[in-house]
Design goal:
The structure is a homodimer of 242-residue chains.
Chain A: E1 8-11, E2 26-30, H1 35-44, E3 49-53, H2 56-65, E4 69-75, E5 78-79, H3 94-97, E6 101-105, H4 108-115, E7 121-125, H5 130-140, E8 144-148, H6 157-170, H7 179-190, H8 196-200, H9 204-210, H10 215-221, E9 231-234, E10 237-240
Parallel strand pairs in A: 1-8, 2-7, 2-8, 3-6, 4-6
Antiparallel strand pairs in A: 4-5, 9-10
Helix pairs in contact in A: 5-6, 6-7
């Protein structure tokens, strides 16, 4: 821990966000199962942008206004009524998504993203773009907040594990005096640093989603660096950082 | 995980307490550094009861009303103005505390204790009474919430580590499907299950308190089973459960 380095902290739930000052900070929104995984996949596969929205009705409304758009979102593991597609990263191959605007409604991730105020930048992180996000954070030389989307405000293992993976890559370059970050790091060490799928098989969210037959999706979402892009928020749109 | 068993959950911060239903639940208030450690020490050493209060002024007021009472509490590592004693468990040997009422003001632990509603019982836990608390919870056959007092609502390692130690002892007898409990368990495993002092030397709170020269206190607070009592709330008083 050295003075003068930028600070890195982990926020374990949107219900704790008020404890952190995000002014001039780079905030990483993490929603591993599955919003920020799907965002990385869609943008890497050539989507023009992703517009994250909170509600199904807003998703439909914005989808109507934008030509060449896809409306997507799930509730309880199924495509939400009135929308066209789901939350799975595997639904967005290049042949389908290239050049299109994905209007995506998710609950936990989108809510957190809209709660962040005065950040220098907001980006999204997942295992699918782990190294790309870590490299981006290294280059910025700004304070960093890794924001776990959690599940209805409850702490979850998968988002915290990713926060630990990012923190572990960055810890020599940031001032870390935050017990949440220490705990996230321990989780990452405990996972062995590679087989995230196995480590997460015992988590609440995995157990919940696997009841919907989504095991393949969960494996996809825990595979590191398949989609090495940095989605960055510009106005209301997430685009690939160049 | 078996249906029919009572449920065990861990709440990582008072700011997350609203997510848990504490009705008919046994709630364990955990404030390792140092309120619930001091409570265990004082009661084991013969104090008649401990009255936890939120503010210094309330502490003084109640102290005036109760004969043979001690008013205690710290702010920023020093005895608070108007009070007689501090927050250290080592300040309350039997020769001093026996038969007396300890009116104790602390910030994080007391606040959490007063936030809990409709519980079956509220008890306090620390490393000093780890096994006594675990045995008590086993006997109750009720849902359990391990409530970490945290630090100004921020997650902390020491309270979560104790929650993990308790959960680890109870996991075969409770239904555990809570990622916070899983994470707390991993921390406990990572600590090796015995040398809690070393494990916590890198925590925020340890670093903060050791600046006040409180290392010996921190060692005391992380020593398992020195004070094997179960402090239980009856009205406004914590007394030893018989």
């Amino acid at each position: 821990m050295t003075q003068g380095m930028p600070k890195l902290e982990v926020c374990l739930s949107p219900a704790l966000l008020h404890l952190y000052d995000t002014t001039d900070t780079v905030v990483v929104i993490i929603d591993v199962f599955r919003a920020t995984s799907t965002i990385a996949a869609a943008l890497h596969n050539g989507a023009k942008c992703v517009i994250p929205v909170a509600s199904v009705s807003e998703c439909i409304e914005i989808g109507h206004k934008i030509p060449n758009s896809i409306t997507a979102g799930e509730r309880d593991g199924k495509v939400a009524e009135g929308l066209e597609h789901g939350n799975s990263p595997s639904e967005y191959p290049g042949a389908f998504v290239e050049g299109k605007t994905l209007v995506l409604t998710t609950t936990n991730g989108t809510r957190l993203l809209h709660m962040v105020k005065n950040a220098h930048n907001i980006i999204t992180g997942s295992f699918l773009n782990l190294d790309a996000v870590s490299d981006f954070l290294l280059q910025q030389n700004k304070n960093v907040l890794l924001g776990c989307s959690a599940w209805k405000d409850r702490f979850n293992l998968e988002d915290t594990l990713l926060a630990g993976a990012i923190a572990s890559k960055l810890k020599d370059h940031f001032n870390v005096n935050c017990d949440s970050t220490r705990a996230a790091n321990y989780l990452y060490e405990r996972s062995g640093g590679h087989d995230f799928t196995s480590f997460l098989k015992d988590s609440s969210h995995y157990l919940r989603l696997s009841k919907f037959g989504l095991e393949k999706d969960l494996e996809y979402c825990t595979t590191p660096n398949l989609h090495p892009v940095v989605p960055i928020l510009k106005g209301h749109e997430l685009i690939v950082h160049k």
